[in-house]
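During the second half of the funding period, the structural biology subgroup turned its attention to how the target accommodates small molecules. The most pressing case was 5-amino-5-deoxy-1-O-phosphono-D-mannitol, which had performed well in the primary screen but for which no bound structure existed. We therefore specified the complex as follows and requested a full 3D prediction, including the ligand pose.
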Amino acid sequence: MCGIVGYIGNKTIDKELVDGLKLLEYRGYDSAGVAVLKNDKIYTTKAEGNISCLEKILKNEENATVGIAHTRWATHGKPSINNAHPHISSDKEWAVVHNGIIENFGQLKNDLQHNNFTFSSETDTEVIAHLLQQLNCEDKINTVIKTCKMLEGSFALAIINKNIDGTIYLAKRKSPLYISLNNAETFVASDPICFAGKTQSYYSLNDDEFCEAKIGKLIFYNLNGETISKKPIEMTDFDIKIDKQNYAHFMLKEIQETPSILKRIVQTYKDNNAFDKINNQILKNINKIILVGCGTAYHAGLVGASFIEKFAKIEARCFVASEFRYNDPLIDDKTLAIFVSQSGETADTIMAHELAKQKGAITIALTNVLYSSLAKKVDFIFPICAGPEIAVASTKAYTAQISILNMFAKHLCNVRNNTNFNFIDSLSNLANTLKILDINCLEDISKELINEKTMFFIGRGLDYFTCEEASLKLKEITYINSQAYPAGELKHGFLALVENGTHVFVIATQKALLDKTLNGAHEASARGAKLVIATQFDIPKSQLKDIYKIISLQNFDEDLMPIASIGAFQMLSYLTSTKKGINPDQPRNLAKSVTVE
Ligand code: M6R
């Protein structure tokens, strides 16, 4: 959460910084700010709200040579101008932007206050600015290193000093930070997407590494203050231009991209099958597979665990990363652990990985971002090939994740049981025929939902997991209190909440469970629920009278139906959100990349 940008060069600094921030807005949009250095003085501009609010008041300082900027997702202190970054030391010599959480900031703040430092914000970050002043010495990078030694928690920092022109000091622990340069300019960012089209390669700071960044020159240091050398990473993956094209929102564009992403997955895994590394040699020692993720990635893991048990007959369980970490999970060197994360930057997922590694597990990242912190730590990477996902609500990444997990489960079966599943062809068939549902058929339902306060999704087996994901999508971007229930659990609480006219969405794509799911749905309808059924089956006439609407799904093999059915609900959430006047790309209080616990 929070995005950092830095720029040294001869272009209009404020503009360069704001252009960078716009690409990082997915990391938070509670407030934004810039600090630039001009004539030995630091000038800051800050605004509450997203980057466009900052852009309106920017002065576009001429003759500034260096600047840092920040887009904030509030952790300590409400979204306000005072709490917006950059934060400035009392003597106005230092300015700092920060992504992460300083866990010992309470103690540090007390100590600084005893030494007569006064605070103008409620943030944890402000302690860093004052510590820089307190520990200031001639050698500025040394001051930065000494300051960071006092900090506990996570941080990516970009810092400028009013007396040192043309330099940005950088520090990193547990939060990502990247640097890139060409002959005339140096760029800093929380995500290398900001460098696309500007440079050919970039550097990634590791934990407890530091950098003194200047034009044409980067000097890297370790925690002892010794210089270290680092290799650049080629930028080939980032030449993708991030724009909405003609779509009203990124979310709509990303939902519509799904069929082409599935085709890309087919091609990528055909050309270079990442599963091949999980061969008999590895599998003969494995007696359990776990999947770990947060939010949508957790839901993808639930589907994946079910696929693995069904096809490969290997015990598989999925965990929410934040719970996994504190429940002393029973894993060892016979465990294969799959960490599902679109961004590869989710703090809980990364920490869960650390624990799994300590316990000896073999680890895989199922991720969209091959340069991410998670990708750097795992034994194997399964790329999800979804391209940049910008909207806060994950859509195409989910569909990509469950598609790959479907194929992987069949791969495991082939390796373990000598079967001959042609999993690439089955996905290819789906990719070539899948259509994103016609918007018109969902329009009417979305119009009805805008006034709803509560609604439900029910389903069994794989459909229940789709319900969980559909319900999360709706909550995130419409603010409707939506809940998913296993369709067999209705009598254990759910029915007490059903009122006349309550919308209940029934997802029914598994033939063997159809009758039982419909029985539950009719019980809800008898209590006044409006039933909307999403299915590929013809519902028997005798059952139709209770059903308010049917969303007709395309017919694929049942194990592929989670891939085919979720699009309808992503779209329904999108339509409802926009009708409520909400920006689905930036729902309140959320951020795309959850890089703090
Ligand atoms: O980048 P990750 O997949 O690790 O992100 C996990 C969750 O933060 C993410 O899925 C979140 O729940 C989305 N906003 C869901 O739409």
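Two results from this model are relevant to the next phase. The CA atoms of residues 131 and 147 lie 6 Å apart. Residues 396-417 form the longest helix (22 residues).
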